[in-house]
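Case study.
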Amino acid sequence: MSTEPLLRVHDLEVTFDLQDEQLKAVDGVSFDVRPGRILGIVGESGSGKSVTSRAIMQMIRHPGKVTGGEVRLNGRDLLRLNEKEMLAVRGKEVAMIFQDPQAALNPVMRIKDQVVEALHIHGVDSATAQARALELLEQVGIPNVPEAARKFPHQFSGGMRQRVVIAIALANNPSLLIADEPTTALDVTIQAQILDLLRRLRDELGVAILFITHDMGVVAELCDDVVVMHLGRIVERGPVRKVLTAPEDPYTIGLMDAIPKMDSPLRDDAPEQEHTVLEVRELKTDVNTARPGWFRKPKPFYAVNGVSLEVRAGETLALVGESGCGKSTLSRTVVGINEPAGGEILVNGTAVSARSDEQRRALARTIQYVFQDPYSSLNPRRTAGQSLEEALRIAGVPRADVRDRSVELLERVSLGPQYLDRYPWAFSGGQRQRIGIARALASDPRLLILDEPVSALDVSIQAQILTLLTDLQKTFDLAYLFISHDLAVVREISHRVAVMNHGEIVEQGTTEDVFENPQHPYTRTLLTATPDLDKAIA
Amino acid sequence: MRNNDVTTMGAAPPTDTPPTDTSARPAPRTRTPGGNATVRRYLAAFRTPRGVIGLTILAVLLLTAVLAPVIFPHGYDQQTADSLRGSSGRHLLGTDELGRDLLVRTVYGLRTDFSIIVVAVPLSMIAGTALGLVGALSRVAGAVVQRVLDIILGFPGVVLGVCVVLIMGPGWSALVVAIAIGGLPYFGRQARAALLEQMGREYVVAARTLGVGKGAVLWRHILPNAVDPILVGGAIFVVVAVFIEAGLSIIGLGIQPPTPSLGSLLNVGIRFIEQSPMYILGPTAVLILLSMSFSLLADALNETVIRK
Amino acid sequence: MREVQRRSRVRSAVVAGAVALALSVTGCQSAVKQQEASSAGAKPTDVGVLTIAQASDIQPNNVLAGRLGNASWAANVFETLTRYDDQRKPQPLLAKEWKVADDKLSISVTLREGVTFQSGRPMTADDVKFSLDHLVKSSSQVAFIAKKFSSVDVTGPTTLTIRFSKPIPNIFDLFEYAFIVDKDSVKGLADGSKVIGTGPFLFKSWSPGSEAQLVRNDKYWGPKPHLDSITIAVINDSTAMLNAVRSNRSQIAIGMNPVDIQSMASNSAFSVVNTSGSVYPLGLNLTQPPFDKLEARQAVNYAIDRARIAKQIFGAAGVVTDLLWDPTSPGYPKDLEQRYTYDPAKAKQMLTAAGAEGTAVPITVIGLPQNTSVAEIVRRNLEEVGLKPVIKVQETQGFDQIQIAGKLGTAFMPLHGLNGLGASTLMDSLPSLRRGNSSKFWTDEYQALRNNLLAADTDAAYATALHKLSEYILDQAFTVAVVQALGQNVVAKSAHELTWTSRSYLDAKSAYVDH
Amino acid sequence: MLRFLVKKLPSILLVLFATSIIAFLLPRFAPGDPAQTIAGPDATAEQTEAIRQSLGLDRPLFVQYLTWLGGVLRGHLGTSYIFNRSVSDLILSRMESTIELAVLASVFMILIGIGLGVLGGSTRSRPGRMAVDTANTLLLATPAFLVGLLLIVLLGVTWRLLPVSGEVPLSENPEIGIQYLLLPALALGLAHAPSISRLLQTTMRSTRGEEFVDLARAKGASPRRITFRHVLRTSLGAAVVAIGIRVGELFGGAIIIEAIFARNGLGQLAVQSVNARDYQLVQILVMGAVLVAVLSQLVTELILAALDPRVRLDA
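After joint prediction, the assembly is written out as follows.
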């Protein structure tokens, strides 16, 4: 702690020049990063954390502008440098890792060339650069480097791509690495590997890292120090352990409370009933619709491959798995968006299919679907009222009662009647998700399929929606099939858990059993990979 | 899996970066009913610099064309012995080979072009959109329609026009038909693209899972959201339509004399380009203004209505 | 480093391209300079080649008919038995001499000896008989004359006698048209693959729609032609044709736009040769109102502003006349030329009298540029006197078809080439005048007047008969001569000794081009 | 690639087959009669009928179609009624003119289109953008024939720099030939360029918002390098697609350009054959136009695959 700061940000101010207003996205932010340390910047969306990181690189997008403060790297104020001088700093002294490794790599350049370019720009000759590139790829853990180096980004998985991005960042031995949500787009298991890698690089190379994230768990696992940002200001700072265990600022306190924790008490309200609302038997779904030729049959790809499960009245069954494991396909098959290729779906004990509109309507009286993205699940051209009206009319509510019932639905999700005539863009993400839920409740269903209902929301909003869901479940005796990749959330809301991998269910049991005593190795991997706030601090 | 709100800071278009919380933005227009909100968005387009210029040019042209019989009550066929004269006080744009005032003929030519556009473009737009949306009702029919549209698309605009004229004989209706058919694949594809995009949208899926019928989904959810790009496409297609009219008229397959159209004026003007280079000036300028006004409007709409 | 190299390579390529472009524009040879230098009077470089620019393509398959496209070459490859001189007196060509029998019911022809086809085969009386038979089946304008033959008897290798049941005074019109073709290769005419005649030039090549080549026939029976070759370039755009002549790429332009001809006429390096013209009639259908009334038809004659049409559309080439005969043809009744004067008031009054005011008059017009322009003025003129004319333009093919079907409607505007033919031939060859005309006009009196013309055996009698016939046609006004336009060819002064036949075909056998 | 072509073949054949039916039926639905054209204006109905029979035009349409298609498949494109020449000869003799025009026009189109597009897609200053946008808007509003007419008036009539009418084949005299070719090719190329430049410009501007461009900046890459190596390189696909579509349109546009510059190319041949109801020629020319469009699309896809490794042809 005694070393001179590598990076000193002092009183930084960034203003966005919008048409009707001046918006201070970063307002008097100061912090230090010391060599060999990892500083986390945490905050919810719009807190100004990314803008801060971009300001350091002088890469703020139009119409944003740095309007005050200084950014000293090794004592030199980067904000005073002109663009040409900055070119020499970027990638050489400070390097950046981006959120979405898929978007961050040039899709039409071989990965080696992209690494070489980083060296090339800073004057490394061709032969040396080639050799160094292979070395770097090796260093970040790319398997079979000579062959992999010739590949294009799309031929890699997300985790591998992020390793390439890190390799590029490390190319010129920068003293500071800025990582802007580098694991947000990745699955937990991959995230764990990348965090490992970053830690290792810090240890081996002594590079300082400025780590921007919204995830307290990740901060806990990786960072030494943390600053918490809210609405463009720093509200709390200090060593990770101190901030996480004993936050002082009310915002931080609230934030910490909202985060689902892996040691919070489990739900103890498992319903007594044995009535099975939904049963799925040996379900298979073929998602390969691409036509390979005129005369050949497409080769089937089963995203759901022989899955059986049941959801009982009033209970929450969580379906957990990483991206591409088939959990969404499964739920979409149940409501008829995808067509089953085999197996059976039983609702209230009767086999159903959802081929025709008639069948769908019948099914919709029992099962409703809530989508992940509240932005796109509401028609932008229709008001909340119109969206509700459509659902109510389908459910058989007479036109005269629609208005009253709509207000009633809104009340159930804690929204006032004034929202009826608003268009989706006038709502916040959380409000939109509430309307999505209200629409699903229109037909008084017995089961809601909740497809990642909170993963697009900030933590504080997420907590509110989870509470709403629990309340609704109690009031209306609803059953939930809760699909999520977030184990902490799942642990908090579910009675039972099914773990899905490669289209199959690998483990199923009560929440307690699965979390405390996982049987399947995959479940165990998932659990270890999930950043655990308390374990990290302890 | 991806936290959208976080993404906003990094990768979304810069104008979308107000670092407020996801709490509701101040929404002064909250209570406006649907129609007005849409109209407002279009009006906003007309307030951009391009929109203002485009609309002004169009308004002037349209007004002149509509009022032509009032401004020039003697019609476009006042023949005199003074043929192929240059610009003068009496004839601002000079006279044609039969001594008719070229300003008058240009204005009436513009009128003819408007009359073609007004019929052909909406016709093409409606029919093309309908064809493009067929896929929503039947997958097979949709595929077949696309094939047919592909074949029409294979015909370069003028070749298609020549084929239509071959059957119908030259004239106003042949031009309308040629333009309308020419636009089918254009609007059909646009509608289909919008359709495919909308079909993947969650609110469409949501409506389908509710059990809303195909027709209702098409009418309530897909069409309103597909209409913007098609309208912008329509504005761009007007330019194409003007070109087709002029192109066919230039090779003598368009509007027939004595009725002037911008293209038929050019057709004759080329014959006298050595004697009276002035001849083609009026129709050329008006044609460029006309197509420019629509392409500016398309740009303006595109900016404000689609990329919002 | 590689990047830098590549960029400089790209840059040098761009520079090289720009230089090449600049060179090609400013370089030693400029198409525009060429064109300006020559119009200032520079000498052409190529001596023995005559280049002709013409608007329409050549038509070997129609060599026996009069087609504008054949005017440049047909008389250089093929020859006729006789040819009219300036006074329209037949002069020997392939025929050495001829004698009309006293009863005027036969003609004996003696052919020139030692004439061979370009294939090397001697031309005989059999070929002449074959050619005349062939002409009957062709689309020639004068085929109707050959149809009147009762027999063609070959009396020796170079003699033959043609017999007919009634006198044929215009038989030399037929001879003027009847190219003697090689019976062995006549099939090749259809696609232009074999075009063999007896003329001073050989038909060497033809690429349809763009170019044809003739070369000197070294075995020609007459004096050797001077020219090595003749190139015919088909240029159907007026500006391009103007360029071709101005730049001296061509010495002759056939079928140039009248407005362009006027501008060429003022250029001292060129002269304008008047050739046999065309007549632009307005046919009126007697079976349909309002033209079932004589007064209405005559009113049309008063309504048309012939002077403006002639001047505005054709300039110097325009001929203001009410008649359909070639003004240079024998017996032309000059006093009838202005029988109707432009008098819209009178026309209006006559139409009102005939109760035709406000009648819709569809006019079918052949879709040629000059024709449609003429029609425009006619339409306007008719509108001014109270009719409601509507123009329907038909492409040439469509027009011909409707004409044959006899469905041209109330009024129609065809285009007739006069082809240097006399009135006695025209009255049978012009579709507007002949039996079965689209005006549906035919009377005994008309028939009698026509017979009188054919029977006239002296120039004076012919003139009288023609005057009477003309008067009758004018009175009946079933077809209205709107305007006549001279054919005009532009000829560079660097080309000499060009001969134009009475039907305006080019004879280049003694032509030469300045060095 | 071979697999891709094999896969594409059925749909190409289908389009061509459908086109062949349309091309065959079109002139036959039209009023007018080639027999009449051949017979000439003074022919009698009997003469015309005889010609019709000799051409086989009196047989049922279906039979005529099969005969024709069979011939085309064996390489016999038929004989033109008006020219009495084999259609293939006629097309070959006109081909040079149109190909010269189309090739040079394409070169102009691509150079100007990509040039303007890059300029518009990389200029950050407001006046620079506005200049490019204005140029684009103006060009976009000006069809090829108008560009042609303006060039004629400016360079052909007012200043007389270049000849504006007629042609000399390059094979005959390249020096003079190119001068005849420059203006029509420029007119055609210039008019089609802005649709390429606009697409390229839009794509480049949106590509600039991509994260990999940020990464390149973070590497310290210079603006020039970013523009050419990253933004342009990844946006080129959009330009290629636009070029592919335009090349097909260019051949169609050549009809009008040939008419106003008096070039004896295939376009003029097409207009003549339409006017003369020369079925045999019309059919083949329509098929040819569609074939060119289809082929240029195909080539586009191949180039696209070469440019973008993500596009897999045989997927």
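Observations recorded in class. Confidence is low (pLDDT under 50) at residues 1-34 of chain B. Chain B is about 70% helix and 0% strand. We will return to this complex in the next lecture.
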